[in-house]
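User: Can you write out an input/output pair for a complex, sequences first and structure second?

Assistant: Here is one pair. Inputs:
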Amino acid sequence: MPSVTPHRFAGVFTVKDREQESLATESLAPGKTVYGEKLVSEGGHEYRLWSPRRSKLAAAIRKGLSEMPIRKGSRVLYLGAASGTTVSHCSDIVGDQGVIYAVEFSQRSARELIGLTTSRKNVIPIVEDARHPTRYAPIVGPVEIVYQDVAQPNQAEILYENMKTFCSFGAWGMLAIKARSIDSASDINKIYTRELRTLEEHGLEIVESIDLSPLEKDHRFIVCRATEELT
Ligand SMILES: C[S@@+](CC[C@H](N)C(=O)[O-])C[C@H]1O[C@@H](n2cnc3c(N)ncnc32)[C@H](O)[C@@H]1O
């Protein structure tokens, strides 16, 4: 019988089944899977296993993330939602009182993302380009967290532009940097240093920077914070 225990991050759980430990979130839409993940029931609750091979946020938690800004009631702007794998777990964590504005520009992925929202009312899908936040500004309310996983050449700039548009002092940025989308040839540490410097130059303090290998090759997960008003 699998056993479920709360993780140190509220809204995240650890499921132990025989010798195997997995991350999980408590499902906001019981009976439904989003990407074929395993469901586990215990004590009248249903939990969805959260794969670190399918979600960079789960990989970052596995690799020792120390700050988890996304919690119950959080208002999150999520850039690069794809078909909603990580978005669905964030939706479980923030619960009915929170909201995930999920931006995705691929029509194909967005179709699946929109399908997800029939059973998850806290996910607002936005089919738009994350490089142009003013286009979706009329739909998005103030948020405390911008999560960015768009695999574009100027990831740090895109994060900052969105934080500047939707956040104020104290807001969090979470960024999955894919080095090879930024530059296919340069030394990856130089690429990371450049992106981190861009964030700092914009007044964002780097809280942590985690290498996601071997779960994700050539990726770093960054948590940063607006320690001054963003201008
Ligand atoms: C690595 S996938 C995201 C995976 C997703 N975050 C997850 O963990 O479930 C990157 C996504 O970003 C989207 N994307 C890339 N550039 C974008 C942009 N400028 N605006 C919106 N979405 C973008 C891609 O279409 C793709 O679906």
